[in-house]
Description:
Elements: E1 19-21, E2 31-35, H1 37-43, H2 50-58, E3 69-71, E4 75-77, E5 80-82, E6 90-97, E7 103-109, E8 124-125, H3 126-142, E9 148-161, E10 164-175, H4 181-189, H5 193-207, H6 214-234, E11 237-238, E12 260-261, H7 285-300, H8 307-319, H9 321-336, H10 344-359, H11 364-371, H12 383-396, H13 403-410, H14 418-429, H15 434-443
Antiparallel strand pairs: 1-3, 2-9, 4-5, 6-7, 7-10, 8-10, 9-10, 11-12
Amino acid sequence: MDIQIPFDNSYVRLPAEFFARQAPAPVSAPALIAVNRELADELGIVLGDGAELAQIFAGNLLPDGAEPIAQAYAGHQFGGFSPQLGDGRALLLGEVVDQQGTRRDIQLKGSGQTPFSRAGDGRAWLGPVLREYVLSEAMHALGIPTTRALAAVATGDLVYRQEGGLPGAVLTRVAASHLRVGTFQYFAARQNVDALRQLFDYARARHYPEAVTPGDLLRAVIERQAALVAKWMGVGFIHGVMNTDNTSISGETIDYGPCAFMDSFDPQTVYSSIDRNGRYSYANQAQVIVWNMAQLATALVPLMPDQDDAIAEFTEAVHAMPEIIEAEWLRVFGAKIGLAAPDEADRELIVDLLRVMHEGGADFTNTFRTLARGEAEGEFDDPAAFGAWYERWQLRLANEDGWRPRMDAVNPAIIPRNHRIEQMIASAVAGDYAPFHRLMDVLSRPYEDQLDAMELTQPPNPQEVVRQTFCGT
């Protein structure tokens, strides 16, 4: 076997209740769509030829050292608790320690049924696989913590959904880990304190070695999640399914289902077809992540010797989180309007800009990108309202050095716009992967002005607008 993956597996050494051993289900005609060679080098993986890569990343061949497992977890989905979810269409092949000494998971997504599949087929169709590949790599290029895409393979088999038979595919995903809030909930719901303590020890050793107590771990996860959500909001990203099983302990963006980037700014924007009440709208993400951290806190309480004291301590930590998010949000959006050290007085200036953007139908990404060039006026239905804000902003910048490069460094010129993603998927289904590869190239340099890709910076025409996205299960 030409491919060499230096597996160093640790999760599989935990007790049997943490996972189920499961081999991937073979597919009929695997064909490699893409492989991320730069990421492979970072992981210390030696890649072989394309034919063998397709077999491995489809799950037909297991590389030496792989120990495939489906991980167990629970989770709150749209507020309702499911005591058992788990990897229903994914398998953790194993772990590697990358060139920086960081342990990372390698997972196949869409690799067949597992004991956690329930009524699902365990497969993924091409659209969600390419969506996650493009969006996760775009998020990485934007500088936002995220899982990564290592490979995508077409299976040659059909996957059946409501739309009928669709081309199947498998994604190979890389993550700091796949530990979720729901992983802790799984053992807390079963009152399995021994397993919960083993999970705490594992999570602490892997992600937060400085954390001594469960309270330390909770506060560390809160800090990372607060920073992550503020960064999402800074690029207009809407996750779409911020369930506790989709909330990573490591602080990475994980599970790109019905997610999207906003075009015109509206804080109530929802793309997910299953989010009928707007629970996970753009504006609600800052509140939902606090709720999710409260569920983590609840799951950690049984580990504490005095549970009354634990409840008081954890409640204080969760109640402090909105202020942490607000501080992160102010830092992110302050930089977006050129401020090196924004203070509370600047919050009103930022909020007023967002209000004018909403009322004026302004494109989120293009407004911030053109603001530094004095060209944002054309984004607004009512240029006069923006003009009044612009004068206030210019006065605030009078004593601010280096504001223009600061803005260009945080305001992307290009994002993976939803209508372009849908067009790319339609082309791929028809057998044309050129739009996929072009998006991957352009989105790898989001902060550059790319004159040969200007059409990809434009918001959709009315007939191109995509208002709903789907999870693909």
